[in-house]
Structure formats: C-alpha cells, structure tokens
Amino acid sequence: KSNLHMHSTYSDGKLSMLDMAKAAIKRGLKVIVFSDHSVSLGVANGLSIERHKQQAAEIKKLQKQFGDELIILHSSEVEIKADGSLDYPDDFLASLDIVVASLHSSLRQPREKITERLLQAVNNPHVDIIGHPTGREIPDREGADLDMEVILQAAAKSGVAMEISASPYRLDLDDMHARRARELGVLLTINTDAHSEGDLDLLHYGVAIARRAWLEPKDVINTWTAKKLMDW
Fold it and tell me: What angle (nearest 5°) sits at the alpha carbon of residue 93, between those of residues 57 and 197?
C-alpha cells in the first residue's frame, strides 16, 4: 500500500515527482514518500534546505492534483555523517513528514565507532526510518561492521523503523537481522528506494527477505492503512 523511500529528479532519480506518482498509482500504491538525498551527498545531487522548500511546494500542488487517489509525503534521505550528526538541523527535520536516515560514507570505521554513529540516528527523535542499515552494495561493497544487536535493541526502545531495502543491490536488512528485529518488536518497512519507474517493480525481493524472516503483515508498516501510517 505504501512505498516510503523513493527518489526523483530533485536528487539522483530519473523521473519527475509527477511521473513517479503516476507510476505509483499504476501499481496500486496509496502512499508514497519522496526522500531525495540530503545536502552532503554531493555525488547524488543532495538538496539544500532551499531546494527542499521548493520541493515541498511542488508536493503540495501534486497533492491537490491527485486528491484522495494518492497521499504524497515530503521526506529526505538524510546522511548520517562520519561523526554521527545528521545533515540538517533538528528544526528543519521536524518540518519534514518523514525522515529516513542512512549511511553512505565512511563505512569502514571501526565497529564501535560506526555502531555509535548509527545509534545517534536511531535515538534522534526526528528520525522515523533507518534506510538500508548496513549500507552494503551487492556485489561491490560489504556492509558496515555494525553491532546489529545493540542497534536493534535501541530501535525497539526508540520506535524507529528499520528498512528492508528491496533493491537487489542492497537486500539490507538481511533475513537474519529482520528476524531478530521482529523478535525484539522492532517495526520494519519494505521499500524499493526507487530511482526509476522500473525500480517500483522490485518490491518482491524485499518481500522474499521478509518471508524468510517469518515476518507477518503486522510487522511491516507498509501494509498498514493510510490512516494508521499517518497516525504513526
């Protein structure tokens, strides 16, 4: 029913928000979230706060155009920087509908350091989702050496949702960690991290991970009604 992590031409996506929204409707989605990259990820054309404000205004217009057919939320995939701080100040994060925080850089930091770095994001009151938690890219890049038990226990306390990225280049969280997350009562979300229309069709890879982890619909926030999701 919902895809809570996708990109548009505002950062490194291939399609405009309008075209992505039409593609989402075609696939029966009820809620989509534009989470274009934050400012320090220059390689992905990350957005300044000013450009985010332009995007927010455009989303409002699109929401009027689509009415009840589709809920469009404004987010950012916010970089968790090398020191654990986030790319935007808290007051700006508070203005977004949803905040996805992700690791993309300095992934080879020692276990203790990078675990502490991710914990800062998990415990930030404005962060809603941790995107592709280990940052791995298949087959080129191993994920960060995280103490996932510590992170999942913190997520259970803070209420942040952990993402299963359906991208076949990520599949992150993997099935073992997703299973442990469920045991601890951590919410999970299966997203495509779509950068193009075709990426929206990759959801089944994430669903396969969830099945291997014995997840049920109630464990995955994408299955919730739009109202329940908005309340969350």
Answer: 55
The pLDDT, as a whole number, for residue 42 is 74
- Going by pLDDT thresholds of 50, 70 and 90, the confidence category of residue 101 is very high
> In 8-147, which ranges are continuous DSSP H helix?
17-26, 49-66, 90-93, 111-122
Tokens 């809620």, residue located: 31
Q: Measured between alpha carbons, how far is 195 from 180 in angstroms, rounded to an integer?
A: 29
Rounded to whole angstroms, the Cα distance separating 103 from 114 reads: 9
d(CA 77, CA 196): 16
Q: What is the 3-state secondary structure (H, E, C) of 83-120?
A: CCCECCCHHHHCCCCEEEEECCCCCCCCHHHHHHHHHH
Report residue 99's pLDDT band, with 50, 70 and 90 as the boundaries.
very high
- Return mean pLDDT, the chain: 96
Locus of tokens 């996506």: 13
The gap from C-alpha 225 to its chain's centroid, in whole angstroms, comes to 18
Q: What is the pTM of this model?
A: 0.97
- Print burial letters for 59-95: b (CB count within 10 Å at least 16), e (below 16): beebeeebeeebbbbbbbbbbbbeeeebbbeeebbee
